[in-house]
Amino acid sequence: MIALLEAGRAGLLGRSHWVSNILAGLIVGIVALPLAMAFAIASGVKPEQGLYTAIVAGLAVSILGGSRVQIAGPTGAFIVILSGVVAQHGVAGLQIATLMAGVILLLLGLLRLGAVIRFIPDPVIVGFTAGIGVIIWVGQWRDFFGLPAVQGQHFHEKLWFLLQNLPALDLATTGLGALSLAILLIVPRFRGMARVPAPLVALVLVTVVQAIFRFDSVATIGSSFGALPTGLPSFQWPQITLTRVVELIGPAFAIAMLGAIESLLSAVVADSMTGSRHDSNQELVGQGVANMLAPLFGGIAATGAIARTATNIRNGGNSPLAGIVHAVFLVLVLLLLAPLASYIPLTVLSAILFVVAWNMSQATLVLRLQRRLPAADLLILWVTFALTVFADLVVAVNIGVVLAMLYVLKRTSDGVRVRALEGRDLLRVLDVTPDQALREDVCVLALEGPYFFASVEAVNHALQTLPQSSRAVILRLNYVPFVDATALQALEAALADLARRGIPMALCEANERVLRKVRRMGLLQAVHGRRIYDTVTDAWLSVAADLEQQEQQAA
């Protein structure tokens, strides 16, 4: 359900909730102001485009999203992807890719695939978010220390260039950056300042210092990007061609997948803080619309912002009204205070991103996981981290998910057992007393676990190593939840091999799904009795009767 309608039905849009949501929206707007500009600059676009994104996407997600407290806008997670797209395809290419990502997100929501995003394992998510944190941190060295333009295409090349030029840092820029960082770290520790956004305090104080002393070597928004436009963005339809669409399909999917992951993670965090439940499919619809609209008004990619959403909740926000107020506040800033932004030093924005990078890296969590996670999960985490930093985020997530899937398949196949029922176990399943004699030439095998391509070898081995006395086989399927095409083809081959050896096989106790697939594969014609028996006792009696008949005919 659309969160705005859900909030209305719950009575959260009533006058009694106006004050708390308006105050929460204003505080979130204050927090979003420096972050939106910092994320935009780090992504390779102008600072005002970050504000446009926070306004348009913030409104769209608050009105159409699936979480009533979600705050959307540009986030640090996108920096790695967006800066790469800008470097390769330009700002126009980024806007087309964002528009395409919005369409993908909208389709994911309409097709009700929101739950699929949850299948990405935690080690992969922790690995790539920690990698993004490292990239953001290193990427801000230039503006924080006042270094020359970075040379190099890959991370290790950029890092080496920055390390080589670090002795040539600008003292004034570095001093203002250190002051900003100190404010960001100290302000939250004061009880009276707990509800005052530290980024805003750092932004105002350091900008005032720069305005007073006017350090010539300190880069500001005005000296680097010019004055912020005083007004709202106009609608602009990008020039989309088939060639551009083909070129940008990869980045578009990357933006969509990362946006889906981040927004749903943010919604889950919000649920844990409020005790509510979000609609993951509707959230993807809202994110899709937001990313379709944002580039049409000069914005970039957006998603749910965990930190801003948490700030909204902590300050009393409980309905989409807070998100709407946050967007309106940013509109007023653009209309009334845009000229003042020219004095903001870039180093203060870099200091803010240092803190964002530290929070994204989740360093304490990563260290704690080193003692708790199994070795395979740690390998997945560090491979994903290394590939994010040194290769590509999309490659990192893909390989991380593939490694996790292979690990799960390995563990699942290791848990599949093919057990020969003998002695008391056989008497129990056949429901006969110990004094009753049973045939010793009928082998009953119990397959326990899914019968799929990774467990085929275990079944084949059991059938190929039957006791020499075996004249018939019964395969019990009551613990088989599903079968796949590879397993059915292997079963068909095994039936043919047993037939050449003169050993019939009976199947029993399959569930409806397995029975339907066996029948569709045409295997009933090859099994004993041309059917799957309801119980192992039925299969035993049928097989035993046929063997006795053969013995009588031979006699």
Structure description:
The chain has 555 residues and is mostly helical. The chain contains 23 helices and 7 strands. It has helices at residues 3-9, 18-42, 47-64, 79-110, 122-139, 141-145, 155-165, 171-186, 198-213, 221-225, 242-274, 280-293, 306-314, 320-336, 346-361, 363-372, 375-390, 393-415, 423-430, 456-464, 485-500, 512-521, 536-554; strands at residues 72-73, 303-304, 417-421, 442-448, 472-479, 505-508, 532-533. It has a 5-stranded mixed β-sheet with strand order 3-4-5-6-7. It has a two-stranded antiparallel sheet with strand order 1-2. Strand 6 (505-508), helix 22 (512-521) and strand 7 (532-533) form a beta-alpha-beta unit. It starts with a helix and ends with a helix.
Distance separating the two termini:
75 Å
Cα gyration radius (Å) = 31 Å
H/E series:
HHHEHHHHHHHHHEHHHHHHEHEHEHEHEH
- How many strands, which pairing sense, and closed or not: the largest β-sheet? 5 strands, mixed
pLDDT averaged residue by residue: 92
Portion in strands: 5-15%
Shape estimate? elongated
Helix content: 55-70%
- The number of distinct β-strands equals 7
**SS class:** mainly alpha
Point out poorly predicted stretches: none
Helix count equals 23
How do the strands line up in the largest sheet? 3-4-5-6-7
